[in-house]
Amino acid sequence: MKKQIKNILGLLLTLCFAYTNAQERILNFDTKIKVEQSGIIKVLENITIKAERVQFLHGLLRTLPLTRKDNYGNNINVGYTIDYIKKDGIEEKYFTKESDGNWKIYIGNKDIDLATGIYVYQIAYSVPYQIGYFDDYDEIYWNVTGNEWQIPINKVSCELLLPKDSDAFLNIHSYTGYKGAKASEGSEKLNDHKTRAYFYANNLKSNQGLTVAASFPKGVVSPASALQKTASIYSKIKGTLWLTLFAIGMFIFYFLQWQKNGKDPKKKTIIAQFRPPFNWSPAIVGYVYNKGVNDKVYMASMVNTAIKGAIKLTSTVEKSLFTTKKLYEIVVLNTEVPHLSEEEKALFKPIAKKKKLLVSRTYYDVFAKAYTGWITSVTNQININSYYTSNTRKKIIGFLVLVNMGLFFVLLSNSSGYINYGFFIMLIGSSATTYWLSKKIEKIGMQILRAVLCFFVVIPTIFTYFASLFFKSWIEIAVQGFIFIAYIIYCINLGKYTIKGSEAIEKLEGFKLYLETAEKNKMNMLNPPELTPELFEELLPYAIALNVDVVWGKQFETLLETAKYNPEWYSGDDSYKTPERFISNLGDAVGASRVDPTPSRSSSSDGSSGSWNSGSSGGGSSGGGGGGGGGGGW
Questions:
Q1: What is the mean pLDDT of residues 465-481?
Q2: What is the pLDDT of residues 555-604, one digit of tens each?
Q3: How many structural domains are present in the chain?
């Protein structure tokens, strides 16, 4: 029995060993790095793989990041020049692609399958601008393997050499493990004369790597050129520089557009008008003055309909144990009122079919029809575009210019690898949309336009913007916030009165001035109308439409109280004397009554190397410095 158990255990161990041995892995990752006096580094990677046709179908995939951090923490571009690539000592075919911020080298032939076995790949390449210049020393800080290999690495070794055989290193350090790890579980050593540095690590798991750092005296490598210094300064300030130019450009664009398309004609001196201009009804007055309809203008029409004797508004108070609720009711008095305006007739028509209506959702269909008919009548009587142009097309074009300029800013100021071909597609698409909209926007449905803009421009832009905030300084975020605020101000002020509209607004402002100052300035006016309860009633709907009902009501408080005013159009408390409260409460009730009471049914890489903080003094981490990336099979 014991013999059988031993045999079974032996078989299991054999199978486990066979499985482990059959796994694809990198058997040896040996790197030799020579620092040239010019600052260019020459890298030779000897990568020995065990291929089992799982990942390694055609050959080796090596990825290298296209950016790294400089001394200031800014992203700078990294360029690679391949000197040669070999497999088992013979030059091998390869092709490269840029993707996700990485430069991917596909070694092998896509038309030829790689047989199982052990292969040695040699990748020789050169990289400029990888030396860190500090006050007292210079340094190379290099991620040897990268931290994005999807397969384990048995052994890693790295040899560092300086330009001359007599050049010596000051300090060396290595880091192993996952990206960001501070541990130094490998080993490092210098030769007797400190002219060569050696680094070793064993049994790295997937996504673990080896990073090395070595400092040397200043003068070993040529100091940074003026171009390099300029590039470094530019790299430090490029985000703020391009953002400042972007902001200035947008402010100039918005100002010039406002000057051309949004600046109203010069206003004349406002003279008080005792009567509504052009014999307009309260609704038309409110529609033109407010550049659109709203609930308060609607209430002005309802009050005017009541004052003319078609309906009576009543209010009662319903009390319960814990609450007090005001209820409003509309009583139909006369279905044949000759002096109703067109929109008042449209409002009154559905209501006239009832004798009495509680202002509640019970009569949702009646109030909804009344409101819809009223809006249709108002907008049909007056072509608001002949009085006011909102310049919607200019606003949308302004937004698309903002998008385009923003994309240019991102492309010019950000080299972190998060910017890929998708940005170019968005740039081209939004440019084409800008041109197309400038020609066609007036001929298509605004609902379709909003949907298209939202899906293809607004949502991607907003997503991109908020995603990019993680890579920006607070200054950049603040300036971008000011740019968006500037756009909002631009949109608000881009609307413009026409010549006809300016003339109408001057008269409406004069009429509004009278409503605000009828009592105060009656001695300074030429032949003003006498302040009477009848005048209060007649002009109250206009005061409501122009949003000066509170001031209008206060001017008549004493007079109405003295006259013991008891209106025929309203019964209940005396809140009509303070129209703000009366209109607000009634408006809320009417607005709620229009709502239907029926419920409705209804693995990736960041493509960036680590920081250029000093790593030779022990302040680095695995994944820091230049180099890096990873790879696998393909």
A1: 64
A2: 888 888 888 888 888 887 655 555 556 666 776 777 666 665 554 444 34
A3: 3
Q: How many CA atoms lie within 13 A of 157 on its CB side?
A: 10
d(CA 272, CA 515) in angstroms, rounded, equals 9
Report whether 176 contacts 186 (CB < 8 A). yes
20 domain-assigned: no
CA distance 316 to 199: 90
Strand-pair partners of 187:
200
For range 82-100, the mean pLDDT: 90
Structure tokens at 220: 């070993």
CA proximity to 197, closest of 208, 210, 180: 210
Compute the distance between CA of residue 233 and CA of residue 240 in angstroms, rounded to an integer.
12
In this prediction, residue 332 carries a pLDDT of: 92
State the pLDDT confidence band at 79, using cuts at 50, 70 and 90.
confident
Q: What angle do CA 351, 356, 358 make, to 5 degrees?
A: 90
Higher pLDDT: 437 or 116? It is 116
What tokens were used for 99? 């993707």
Main-chain dihedrals φ then ψ at residue 438, nearest 5 degrees: -65, -20
Point out which residues pair with 215 in neighbouring strands: 139, 171
Identify any residues that bridge with 570 across adjacent strands, giving them in sequence order: 313
Alpha-carbon radius of gyration of the chain: 39
The answer to whether residues 465 and 423 belong to one domain is yes
pLDDT in the model for residue 401: 78
Residue 25, CA atoms < 13 Å, CB-side half-sphere: 17
**In a 3-state reduction of DSSP, which class is residue 75?**
strand
487 in a domain, yes or no?
yes
Residues 6+ positions from 439 with CB-CB distance below 8 Å: none
304 compared with 397, residue with greater pLDDT: 304
Report how far residue 448's alpha carbon sits from residue 450's, in angstroms, rounded to the nearest whole number.
Answer: 5
Residues 6+ apart with CB under 8 A from 56: 24, 49, 114, 633, 634
Cα–Cα nearest to 493, from 281, 333, 305, 255: 255
| 174 and 160 within one domain | yes
Residue 249, both tokens = 């450009």
Token pair in block for residue 46: 């000897």
Q: Is residue 188 included in any domain, yes or no?
A: yes
Q: Does any domain span residue 6? A: no
* 39-48, 164-173, 612-621, range with greatest mean pLDDT: 39-48
Question: Is residue 347 located within the same domain as residue 425?
Answer: no
Neighbours of 534 (CB within 10 A): 10
Question: E strands of 192-250, at which residues?
Answer: 196-204, 209-216
User: 179 with 155, same domain?
Assistant: yes
Query: Which distant-in-sequence residues (6+ apart) come within 8 Å of 136 by Cβ?
Result: 218
Q: Which domain holds residue 463?
A: 234-263+392-494
Q: Are 51 and 162 part of one and the same domain?
A: yes
Q: Judge if 484 and 523 occupy the same domain.
A: no
Are the CB atoms for 158 and 188 separated by under 8 Å? no
Residue 373 has pLDDT above 60, yes or no: yes
CATH code at position 622: 2.60.40
| pLDDT higher than 70, residue 526 | no
Q: Which of 181, 211, 111 has the alpha carbon at shortest distance from 629? A: 211
CA distance 552 to 395: 37
Burial 334-363 (b: 16+ CB within 10 A, else e): eeebeebbebbbbbbbbbbeeeebebbeeb
User: So what's the pLDDT on residue 415?
Assistant: 44
